[in-house]
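Notes taken during the Thursday session

The instructor put the following on the board and asked us to keep it in front of us for the whole hour. The protein is Protein GrpE. We were told not to look anything up and to reason only from what is written here. First, the residues (208 in total):
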Amino acid sequence: MSEETPGFEEKPDVPSGDAAEAAESSEDAAAPAGDANSTPASDAGLTAQLDQARAALTERTGDLQRLQAEYQNYRRRVERDRVTVKEIAVASLLSDLLPVLDDIGRARDHGELVGGFKSVAESLETVVAKMGLQQFGKEGEPFDPTIHEALMHSYAPDVTETTCVAILQPGYRIGERTIRPARVAVAEPQPGSAGKAEESDDSEKDSE
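Then, after some discussion, the predicted structure tokens were revealed:
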């Protein structure tokens, strides 16, 4: 039976100083090799993710720009339609009032626009003017078939072109839209008057 020596304990084997330094150096040498092998792969992955994020951002930006353009076009269409509907409604209302305005004009021409009727008529004319209604058609202006309707025709020696010599019924417009042409009597130069005018000019030149 063996006896243990009192006061002494067995210690694990500890590598010598040279062996420990060799082990540390081998670990240090192995670590960079592992890092060098993993770095390119991780960089490539990050680059791919970044490219995907940029592509997604570009696509979303394009979608947002198209959506904004469509919305702006929609707003313009709605505003244009709203203005058009308003103009049509106003033109329809004023067209129904034109016979009343004609009666007021005839009463004024005959001196019958007096008293309370005069006040009501002037108020109505003020209201329709604020709504954009404009009267046109004057004696002596050139005849324009786009805004005039000729109801009577004659010849006159004192005109050099087709001229409105009488306004039978005034025309009305709203802005650039004609809601009723002016109904007029027109006069044209007398046949042969142009030749006489040229002869008179030639005679004047000869006398000089």
